[in-house]
Design brief:
alpha+beta; Nuclear Transport Factor 2, Chain: A; 6-stranded mixed beta sheet; 30% helix
């Protein structure tokens, strides 16, 4: 194959890939965490969905210490181009002030819009040890109304560390309100 033709095919493939993978913000994906008629998650997604439930329940309770315990460490959050790493739950909780978030934007709680399990991994022995989850969340005010500009697409990695399932990596389109905050 001629070098010019190879370059043209490579360029065409790259352009096609950007159209396939460049999803617009707030794309609604299927919700892997939709419950069945009995109120249960599917067996395939029970683990990551429950880990995400614990994450959001403690976040909405504005309990920084309990929220920190839902995560795995070291915990990494990428917000914009800023990467923050916390080594312990204590360090994480110290950097959070959920009351400040509430006062700053009128936030009362947050809801998931969807949680789509993209991939799962195992330890090589057939035991699940990691899930990649594309998700979206919306921040709500005291009346339960979405706060304009506060719906965010995100990507979380849920891992098992010493038998504890929790978010270990989060990349979000949400910024940081102050310093090393993780919301």
């Amino acid at each position: 194959m001629k070098p010019v033709m190879k370059a043209s095919l490579f360029l065409a493939a790259g352009m096609a890939a950007t159209h396939v993978f460049a999803a617009p913000a707030q794309t609604h994906l299927p919700d892997s965490c939709a419950k069945d008629a009995k109120g249960n998650y599917s067996q395939a997604f029970d683990v990551p969905c429950q880990a995400l439930d614990r994450f959001l329940t403690t976040f909405n309770a504005k309990d920084e210490r309990a929220w920190a315990k839902t995560l795995n460490y070291p915990h990494v959050r990428m917000s914009g181009n800023q990467v923050t790493v916390w080594e312990t739950p204590e360090a994480y909780a110290k950097d959070q002030n959920l009351q400040q978030l509430s006062k700053a934007i009128g936030w009362e709680n947050t809801r998931w819009n969807y949680r789509y399990v993209v991939q799962s991994g195992s330890d090589g022995k057939g035991n699940a040890n990691k899930y990649h989850v594309a998700l979206s969340f919306t921040r709500l005010d005291k009346a339960g109304t979405p706060i304009p500009g506060h719906t965010f697409d995100s990507f979380y990695i849920i891992t098992s560390v010493d038998g504890h399932w929790g978010a270990q990596f989060r990349s979000s389109m949400a910024g940081s309100l102050h310093g090393a905050s993780a919301y």
